[in-house]
């Protein structure tokens, strides 16, 4: 026996009154939704020429003027171009630098500046170069121009150090793998911890410890080892520093740079070094020897230290090795009883320093860990790991453009921001300060920026104004106090 289903098709037809009631209900709901939509999806016009998505970029532009940024570029940049060009090399490099500072790493993203009237008001220009012009400019870069960009960075740092007292510094060195996703020129398949078998570049970097200035960096093919061509890179780095302002006391390097020839050179130049040693079979034997004769002294509940001066095979002399022993927590195997037998993990550090204890040497080496944060900041904040150009020299040029942007932002935050804010990394600096939308209104001396209510930002802007004025007085004075005093 079949039971008839209660479907729409077999329902009783609605009466006329019921149909009209339903239609009126639908009309009411439609009107209500229409009213709600009109209140939220407001009419849009495109006739406002004062809004900018980079509301506080003017502080960075003012800072650039105070330090003489445009003069530095004009004095050292020379790119061969046609005689009737609309934009000078200074204009185009400045646009690329601004784009990197504001997080616009792709040429297609840089076109935002063409449509941002507020940005153009801050720059006091009527137009900004488009994507094709910027690409063409980058295509005119030669090896000589790469050297000029390195010189501009050198002059920028000299200007910064000129505003400070001479100081003794440590340099931190490292390298990083930059994976490419194409057939970029001179890229190669080498060591790549994340993308095995992918083509890549290697970037060697040198930072001043503590204050984080990027002294020098260079692009290599992906097969270049950490210590490959490193001595040349080190000498080039030293040449970028004014010995009257900066005295290099020592360097910190990872085990990838472990090389007896490098140590010998540093000793001949009276430059101290702290380098993590590779745990080779010979180094492991030394650790076993120290363990056997009980030379390890406890420095905490889990760590012990020992030291010895010994030459490795083929070395011409002995050097100081500091060994750090870490006691690992015993792990019980499932279904078995843990005998609680201690197991150890070792690390070795070779150093020329003899005025520090073994524990102090270890802590001093650990200060080097900050360079990993700086490399991450270059990658995440400045897009240094985005090697999208096919030609090697264009990728080198973009590398330097982003490096110059980093040093500008690094100096900017050290001078203009309060102590807690000067530790902002570049992405935070953009999010909280540079890339906050605003409305530039008024004319002449009455021109100002209107922003959404923000108590924290208002307080920060007040501090930035005061510090910018103080910095202006300092930079133009014959008697320049150190920047640390200014920040205080």
What does this protein look like?
The chain is globular. The longest helix has 25 residues, at 16-40. Strands 2, 3, 4, 5, 6, 7, 8, 9, 10 and 11 form a 10-stranded mixed β-sheet that branches. Strands 1-12-13 form a 3-stranded antiparallel β-sheet, covered by helices on one side. The protein has helices at residues 16-40, 57-66, 69-76, 89-101, 107-110, 112-115, 117-123, 131-139, 143-162, 230-239, 260-268, 281-292, 358-366, 370-382, 392-416, 426-434, 455-476, 483-487, and strands at residues 51-52, 167-179, 188-189, 199-208, 214-221, 246-253, 272-277, 297-298, 303-310, 319-328, 343-351, 438-441, 448-450. It is built from 18 helices and 13 strands. It is α+β, with helices and mostly antiparallel strands and 488 residues long. The protein starts with 15 loop residues before the first helix and ends with a helix. The protein is 44% helix and 17% strand.
Structural class: alpha+beta
* CA-based gyration radius: 31 Å
Biggest pleated sheet:
10 strands, mixed
Helical residues, percent? 40-55%
Distance between the termini: 94 Å
- How many β-strand runs? 13
- Overall shape: globular
Roughly what is the average pLDDT, rounded to an integer? Answer: 88
Outline the low-pLDDT stretches: 478-488
Number of helices: 18
Strand content: 15-25%
């Amino acid at each position: 026996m079949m039971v008839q289903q209660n479907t729409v098709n077999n329902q009783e037809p609605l009466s006329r009154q019921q149909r009209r009631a339903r239609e009126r209900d639908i009309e009411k709901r439609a009107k209500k939704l229409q009213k709600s939509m009109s209140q939220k999806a407001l009419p849009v016009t495109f006739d406002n020429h004062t809004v900018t998505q980079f509301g506080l970029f003017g502080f960075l532009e003012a800072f650039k003027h105070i330090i003489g940024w445009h003069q530095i570029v004009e004095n050292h940049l020379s790119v061969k171009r046609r005689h009737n060009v609309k934009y000078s090399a200074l204009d185009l490099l400045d646009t690329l630098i601004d784009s990197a500072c504001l997080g616009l790493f792709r040429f297609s993203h840089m076109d935002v500046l063409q449509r941002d009237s507020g940005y153009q008001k801050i720059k006091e220009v009527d137009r900004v170069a488009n994507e094709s012009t910027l690409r063409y400019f980058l295509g005119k870069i030669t090896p000589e121009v790469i050297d000029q960009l390195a010189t501009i960075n050198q002059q920028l740092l000299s200007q910064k150090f000129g505003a400070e007292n001479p100081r003794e510094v440590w340099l931190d060195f490292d390298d990083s793998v930059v994976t490419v996703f194409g057939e970029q020129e001179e890229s190669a398949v080498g060591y790549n911890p994340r993308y095995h078998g992918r083509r890549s570049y290697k970037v060697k970097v040198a930072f001043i410890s503590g204050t984080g200035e990027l002294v020098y960096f260079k692009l290599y093919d992906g097969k270049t080892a950490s210590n490959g061509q490193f001595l040349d890179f080190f000498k080039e780095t030293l040449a970028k520093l004014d010995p009257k302002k900066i005295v290099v006391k020592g360097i910190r390097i990872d085990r990838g740079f472990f090389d007896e020839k490098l140590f010998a050179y540093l000793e001949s130049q009276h430059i101290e070094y702290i380098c993590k040693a590779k745990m080779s079979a010979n180094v492991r034997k030394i650790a076993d020897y120290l363990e056997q004769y009980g030379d390890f002294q406890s420095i905490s509940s889990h760590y012990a230290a020992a030291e010895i001066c010994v030459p490795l095979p083929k070395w011409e002399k002995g050097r100081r090795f500091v060994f750090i022993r870490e006691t690992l927590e015993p792990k019980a195997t499932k279904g078995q009883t843990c005998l609680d037998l201690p197991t150890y993990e070792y690390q070795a550090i070779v150093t020329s320093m003899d005025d520090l204890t073994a524990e102090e040497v270890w802590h001093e080496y650990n200060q080097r860990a900050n360079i990993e944060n700086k490399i991450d900041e270059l990658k995440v904040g400045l897009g240094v790991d985005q090697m999208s150009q096919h030609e090697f020299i264009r990728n080198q040029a973009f590398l330097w453009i982003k490096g110059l942007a980093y040093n500008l932002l690094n100096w900017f935050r050290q001078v203009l921001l309060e102590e807690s804010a000067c530790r902002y990394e570049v992405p935070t600096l953009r999010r909280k300060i540079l890339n906050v939308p605003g409305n530039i209104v008024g004319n002449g001396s009455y021109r100002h920026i209107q922003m959404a209510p923000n108590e924290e930002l208002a307080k920060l802007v007040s501090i930035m104004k005061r510090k910018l004025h103080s910095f202006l007085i300092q930079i133009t004075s014959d008697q320049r106090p150190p920047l640390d005093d200014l920040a205080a």
